[in-house]
């Protein structure tokens, strides 16, 4: 059974059709990355698949239509990291990460030792312990991005939806975070659906890729099938050279 099953997904925002008939399947434990030019509808599609936007078509998580799941069940199943999450004012890093445990805490109840341990573990995994007591709004963009991911990991969901999770990170932290996600995927059998900007990096970590343009899927397959000179020329209007790499195609833009 697929972890994520999407059929004829459509999203209309302010009267415009932004996502137009997208079909997408992500197997348990698989990593699929959505690429596409600015404005293609990647973030919108991801939010809809995460149940955060009203959408047409069918969305299933582990075979269940998401409409059948209540809020707590949803939060235990899927953790979403948005591009720019809203931060509660003056919140400390530790408390923000602990918010990921909300679906496990009884209404009006207090967090358990297990919840605190999950938050600790996520902070440690992302090298954030030195920041635990800092106010989140005093962190740099890259540090904050790691905190958002820590909260999602603390949530303990089997499906991670990541919208450009490394866009604010330097190249070292980028690799560190993606390696961590990949390791957790292997250790815990996580399923990952991400959007990414950097095409070479996207190809190195994904089992499969989907190229979105104008709200539609225009190419899908392995990184080598999707990252071709003609696909990128057509949909990004860029001349690229594709160089075979150890973990996937290396995409280099060249002057036209
Ligand atoms: P991507 O993540 O691929 O860059 P988005 O999903 O953020 O693209 O946006 C896709 C398109 O939808 C863009 O043209 C954007 O301007 C438009 N859009 C996003 N949010 C809204 C909204 N609330 N109302 C109208 N249009 C929107
Ligand atoms: Mg986006």
Helix content: 25-40%
The overall pLDDT average reads 95
Radius of gyration: 18 Å
CATH class: Alpha Beta
What is the overall shape? globular
Tell me what the CATH architecture is: 3-Layer(aba) Sandwich
Query: Which distinct ligands sit in these coordinates?
Result: adenosine-5'-diphosphate, magnesium ion
What does the largest sheet look like? 6 strands, mixed
The CATH superfamily is P-loop containing nucleotide triphosphate hydrolases
Write a compact overview of the structure shown.
The protein is of the alpha/beta class and 256 residues long. Helices cover 33% and strands 28% of the residues.
Describe it for me?
This protein is α/β, with parallel strands linked by helices. It has a single domain (2-253), classed as Rossmann fold (3-Layer(aba) Sandwich). 33% of the residues lie in helices and 28% in strands. It contains nine helices and twelve strands. The strands form three sheets. A six-stranded mixed beta sheet has the order 6-7-8-3-9-10, with helices on both faces. The protein has a four-stranded antiparallel beta sheet with strand order 2-1-4-5, covered by helices on one side. Strand 1 (2-13) and strand 2 form a beta hairpin. Helix 4 packs across helix 5. The longest helix is centred in the last third of the chain and has 18 residues, at 171-188. The protein is globular. 39% of the residues are buried. The mean pLDDT is 95. The structure holds adenosine-5'-diphosphate and magnesium ion. Magnesium ion binds at residues 42-43, 83, 163.
